[in-house]
Amino acid sequence: MIPRVVDISHHNSGKFDFAAVAKAGVWGVIHKASQGRSYVDPTYADRRNAARNASLLWGAYHFNTGESVTAQVDNFMKAAKPDASTLMVLDFEDNPASQMSIQQAVEFLRTLEIRLGRKGAIYGGNRIKENVGKLNASDRAYLTSHKLWLCQYGPKAVMPAGWSKYWLWQFTGDGIGPTPHNVAGIPGNGIDINTYDGTREQLTAEWTSRPALPAPPGGGLVSSILSLFGKA
């Protein structure tokens, strides 16, 4: 697996060298910004500046709770302080202390989109796979229209229903999963590492937008119609 994006939080302590991270072939960093309705990661702001100084893409994630969705989105926006180039992600994974439902996840993403003016992305693995089928058709279609940052520790990416492909794949974390388990410039034994199937230019273009869909064979119906008018 080729490391292209790392995700970190205040749990990753020690001295960081983001220039070394970039030199190791990593293109982006996604950092915890917030959790629930009030928690803010105290290391987010300083690391954001350092990572951007090393020309790394920057993203923020919010760790879910079962609290008020509106309050959580408010906290996320305030903590992440997103600009046009900040990836914004809902971390929808197990949280035994206070679990967000799949319906709340849809509400979170809808509210975030309104506040942000563009879609965010969603991170998860088993919880998405176990719960996406509980949504009605409309909400399911909305959820699966988002970029999927898949958590799947192992040699094969198993997709949740509704997605044909992951956008990012977290293939290892805490030393569990395929190697490598570490990246130069980030201290600790066994960090969260993600791969991406594409070029750096593609990842940069997709960071705050939907990935481009492949053109259908023959150019598709729209291209065929446009060609009649000399516009294809």
Gyration radius (Cα, Å) is 18 Å
How would you write the strand order of the largest sheet? 1-2-4-5-6-7-8-9
What is the structural class? alpha/beta
> What is the domain tally?
1
Biggest sheet descriptor: 8 strands, mixed, barrel
Assembly of the depicted chains: single chain
How confident overall, as mean pLDDT?
92
DSSP, total strands: 9
Helical segment tally? 8
Q: Into which percentage range does the β-strand content fall?
A: 15-25%
Overall shape: it is: globular
| Helical content band | 25-40%
Under CATH, the homologous superfamily reads: Glycosidases
Order of helices and strands: EHEEHEHEHEHHEEEHH
- What is the CATH topology classification name? TIM Barrel
Q: Class, according to the CATH hierarchy? A: Alpha Beta
CATH architecture name? Alpha-Beta Barrel
Poorly predicted runs? 219-232
First-residue to last-residue Cα separation? 39 Å
What descriptive keywords fit this protein?
232 residues; 31% helix; alpha/beta; eight-stranded mixed beta barrel; TIM Barrel; globular; disordered C terminus
Characterize the structure shown.
Helix content is 31%, strand content 19%. The C terminus is likely disordered. The termini are far apart. α3 packs across α4. The chain has an 8-stranded mixed β-barrel with strand order 1-2-4-5-6-7-8-9. It has a single domain, classed as TIM Barrel, CATH 3.20.20.80. With 232 residues, the protein is an alpha/beta fold. The chain contains 8 helices and 9 strands. The longest helix has 15 residues.
